[in-house]
């Protein structure tokens, strides 16, 4: 069951959960893939509620996102399961079906084609309305040194939050 | 007096306040200027707390921001003063000293050169660590039609939140 919510009521929890990680889920060609992310911002642009996800060039998630333009974000409410976030942060969906290996339960989406993950109950369904690859050449040197030993650049995906809910039994 | 806070504890209030407006303040050549904004996102990138402000090419604020790379954001806590937000959303700092005309009180900053505005007590001090002009050519047509009758494009200013507090008596 979905308990629909105002995503901004959970903006603080979303920002604070990123320290341990949240899940970014995509789906293409019938395959659902999820990855742990620790970066993202939430707010408003063009009068719409927006979640911006940052995804590196090399990620399988990027390929799926560019194909479908839709994603879900799942945030643990209460204590995150470190096992899920660790596994989904180190394995690639190119060679691992993370959903199946972890026995995660997908939740039928309300507005888009990508399901949420029941084990992390707070779900944002997002439709990409804008994306922009970031420009390393104008980033401070210490950030480039630390995060970009290879030029594996992030693209900012501006997802309009089209539905937000807690998944409940 | 400053009561220092975790900005993420106020992320929900910041997101929701944008509907009525929040203040973006800059300072250059000794002049403080403030404008009302209704768009922005808050969260994490490069492991740092970030507030992203979106500022159009034509704004005087953009000129000041590009010179100094610092800004404050002030958010009303409780009921916003519609008069302040309305005035600061329609007048330009090029020909109006909005701070003086409204009799606003500036608060000495903690970490940067730009003061906060006491009348809207929640203050984020931000240092720009990245900026990127948005690309209208990949935005949906309905957004371009509505927000860009002229190509007065927004630049995303990624401000690292270096201090956050409530201004109190």
Can you describe this structure?
- The structure is a homodimer of 169-residue chains.
- In chain A, 22% of the residues lie in helices and 40% in strands.
- By secondary structure, chain A is an alpha+beta fold.
- In chain A, the strands form two sheets. In chain A, strands 1, 2, 3, 4, 5, 6, 9 and 10 form an eight-stranded antiparallel β-sheet that branches. In chain A, strands 7-8 form a two-stranded antiparallel ribbon.
- In chain A, a hairpin with a 2-residue loop joins β4 and β5.
- The N and C termini of chain A lie close together (6 Å).
- The A-B interface holds A 8-12, 14-16, 18-19, 38-47, 49-50, 52, 54, 129-132, 134-135, 138-140, 143, 146-147, 154, 156 and B 8-12, 14-16, 18-19, 38-47, 49-50, 52, 54, 129-132, 134-135, 138-140, 143, 146-147, 154, 156.
- β4 of chain A pairs antiparallel with β4 (40-45) of chain B.
